Amino acid sequence: MNQPLTRFSQEWWSAYQTTWNEQENLAKKFAKLGKVILWFSDHQGVSVCSEWDDQGQIVSLELIEEMDESLPIFSATRENWDRFVNQEIGAVKAVMTGLIDYRGSMTIIVKYGRHFDCLAEVAQKVN
């Protein structure tokens, strides 16, 4: 019997990438997004730099220990990332209230912001 994956571990992120790439209906919403950092401000999870291609597939998911300030960054504590993934709070509200800090181009928010809740939807499918 397989043990459930520890959320936000290296193995969990790998399973997340696979699960995301199986969601063709959602992937297209992130077409051409490019690289984005998902950062744990309290270091209670594995931070990643994810890259979406022209079709919205995650083509790379790099585990990182330092932020590249030139990329869009979503940063939160483990508790707030859990709240987001558990769908207790939506992406837009989380950013607007500061539960998730966003640093980067507002173009990303305008073009993709309404779709970021899909990230939590897919996370619910990762075991």
Question: Which descriptors would you attach to this protein?
Answer:
single chain, 35% helix, 127 residues, alpha+beta
Task: Write a structural description.
- The chain is an alpha+beta fold and 127 residues long.
- 35% of the residues lie in helices and 20% in strands.
- Strands 3-2-1-4-5 form a five-stranded mixed β-sheet.
- Strand 2 and strand 3 form a beta hairpin.
- The chain is globular and about 40 Å long.
* Element-level helix/strand string: HHEEEEHHEHH
Our estimate of the beta-strand percent is 15-25%
- Alpha plus pi helix count: 6
Oligomeric state of this protein: single chain
Task: Provide the structure class.
Answer: alpha+beta
Q: Which term fits the overall shape?
A: globular
| Order of strands, widest sheet | 3-2-1-4-5
N- to C-terminal distance: 12 Å
Average of the residue pLDDT scores? 94
Unreliable runs, pLDDT <50, ≥5 residues?
none
Q: How many runs of DSSP E, i.e. beta strands?
A: 5
Which bin fits the share of residues in helices?
Answer: 25-40%
Radius of gyration: 13 Å
The biggest beta sheet is recorded as:
5 strands, mixed
Summed up, what is this model?
The chain is α+β, with helices and mostly antiparallel strands. The chain has 6 helices and 5 strands.
